[in-house]
């Protein structure tokens, strides 16, 4: 069961088609498993269709925007189950094979990475798969920009809680954390970074010049 979700603004941007391809992919993968967020997006899609049917020039005031957000946030959590889109198919189309069979590169300690930015031509942000070995710990770090992450396999824990498969999380330069893989399998995530991470450990911080 997913416990960590995209915020209302992200879902609105997704519904409007304003997100970049990698950001939209992260949300789509989450929606495949989360009926509550799918219901919210369905509501947004319906509202958008109604607005499109109105007069060509429609003024959207700040109060109307806040009203829409309130309506989305107030939607009941228990919604009828809908058949999800094939999330594994979306990943296989992108990666071409099973997650564990990818050409991972050891980065630091228990962390392996695979940069897939080149699969999203024209993107300014870095798109990377990260694998944290089962029971392993990532170095303590913060972020120079924003990092959007969805858990594809396994789970990890930090000071904010436990993030299971298909959970969604956004971190900024205000967040410092040290993820730990929980459970019996490797934790694999898909992340979009606007800037490289910044290691803050006593010794690992000296490696920052070598981190892309």
UniProtKB/TrEMBL annotation:
InterPro entries: Anti-sigma_ChrR, Anti_sigma_zinc_sf, ChrR-like_cupin_dom, RmlC-like_jellyroll, RmlC_Cupin_sf. CDD domains: cupin_ChrR. The lineage of its organism: Bacteria, Pseudomonadati, Pseudomonadota, Gammaproteobacteria, Pseudomonadales. It comes from Marinobacter subterrani. This is Anti-ECFsigma factor, ChrR. Residues 123-190 form the ChrR-like cupin domain. Pfam families: Cupin_7 (PF12973).
